[in-house]
Each structure stands twice: as C-alpha cells, then as structure tokens.
Specification:
Helix 4 packs antiparallel against helix 5. This protein has a single domain, classed as 4-Layer Sandwich (Metallo-beta-lactamase, Chain A). The strands form 4 sheets. The protein has an 8-stranded mixed beta sheet with strand order 1-2-3-6-7-8-9-10. It is α+β, with helices and mostly antiparallel strands.
Length: 220
C-alpha cells in the first residue's frame, strides 16, 4: 500500500520515498503506527506531501534518531508540525544539537512502546541505537546504517569515528535475535528492506562479523 510518498512494507511500518544521500547511496525514514502511538524513526527529506501523508496516518507522537548523522532540518519540521519531541542516545546529544534541538535522551535499553524496543548498539558511533519491533508475530530490525545493503550484500558502516570492537559486540546482539524483516536507513540498489529467513539473517550477521574482524586486523 502507498499513501502518497509513504510506502507500507509491513503491518504498521511505512517508509518515505527514497531520497539520495550522496551519489549512488539513498536513504529513507520510517513511520511506525503501533500501540496507539506513531513513531518516526531516522530522518529524511520532509516536504508538504510527506506531512499530508503522515497526517493521513495519524501524525507523529515521538521521533527517534539512530545516531548523529540523521539529524537534519526534517527533525525540526516534524517537531514543529506535529509537536513530536526528538529523542536520541545521550552520547549523540552534542552532535545532534549542532543541527537540531534534542528534547530527550536515553542511555539504556528500554521499551518505547509495548511493541518497540530501543537497544544501544555502539560501533558505527558511540550512541548508535537499533530499534526492534515485535508486532503481529514478526520481528523487524531497524539498524539504520549499523548494517546496510549495497546491491543485496550487507555491510557494517565503519569509518574514522567507529569502534570495530564495539561493532562486534553489537553483531553478537544481532545474532541473538530472530529477525523477519530488516529496515535500514541507508542502502544502494533497487530494494530498501529485506525479508529474511533465520538462516539468511545469521549469514548476514556472520558476513558482517568477518568484515569487521578484517578491519580490526588491518588496523592493528
């Protein structure tokens, strides 16, 4: 189902039209309409068409960032239009505040709603956070770009700010989950999300673990 520039990918999970982040790499944001509350994850280009489509689905009650790179003027637009406070990990506050206002921070694993959990997932940056939705018998993972697909192959995002050892711990956390659908923010290729079997999910995690260990070995 499509509601204007919002596309439904699972029960009560909708993502924005694809927007180019930089050449060859695209990104999206997600609206989750669960537990009588609408949650906006990540950040993306927000236009009047987005606002009308979001309003048609009930607006936004709260918005959450995975990490600092998602801070954008779109956060202010969502806050101003819907009165939706912006949340991020406390380790990301300073960097996020350089771009947009922060209304609340968190540090520990916690339930955002009965179906949606925030889990600190350091590695890409210190305050990266993964969101886990358990809804209608399915588990959906929102890793932002902690892991992301490039033309169907999944990778970890490690740059000069990153901690590969912390990334390995996050991948261990991922390996404990039974995931049915992966919804990243960042991707390249034709498909934003991927439905996965248990075997496929654990293969993705192992491939990312091997890639991360290789980077650790190269840096040592």
């Amino acid at each position: 189902m499509t509601v204007g520039p919002l596309h439904t990918v699972a029960a009560d999970v909708h993502h924005t039209d694809v927007a180019e982040l930089f050449p060859g790499i695209d990104h999206v944001a997600y609206l989750l309409t669960v537990d009588d509350e609408n949650i906006w994850l990540y950040s993306s280009l927000v236009t009047d068409r987005h606002l009308a489509a979001i309003e048609a689905l009930g607006g936004v009650d709260r918005q959450y960032l995975n990490h600092r790179d998602e801070a954008s003027p779109g956060c202010d637009i969502i806050r101003d239009h819907f009165g939706a406070p912006l949340h991020c990990h406390v380790a990301e506050r300073e960097a996020v505040q350089a771009v947009t206002g922060v209304d609340a921070t968190f540090e520990e694993r916690h339930q955002i709603t009965p179906s949606l959990e925030a889990r600190p997932a350091a590695g890409h940056v210190a305050g990266s956070t993964t969101f886990v939705l358990r809804h209608e018998g399915k588990t959906t993972l929102f890793p932002s770009d902690t892991v992301y697909p490039l033309y169907g192959e999944w990778h970890t995002f490690l740059d000069e700010r990153s901690d590969p050892e912390a990334m390995l711990s996050t991948l261990d956390l991922y390996d404990e989950l039974d995931v049915d659908l992966i919804c990243p923010s960042l991707f390249a290729g034709e498909t934003v999300t991927e439905s996965v079997s248990a075997d496929r999910w654990h293969t993705i995690v192992e491939d990312c673990r091997v890639e991360t260990q290789r980077i650790i070995d190269e840096r040592s």
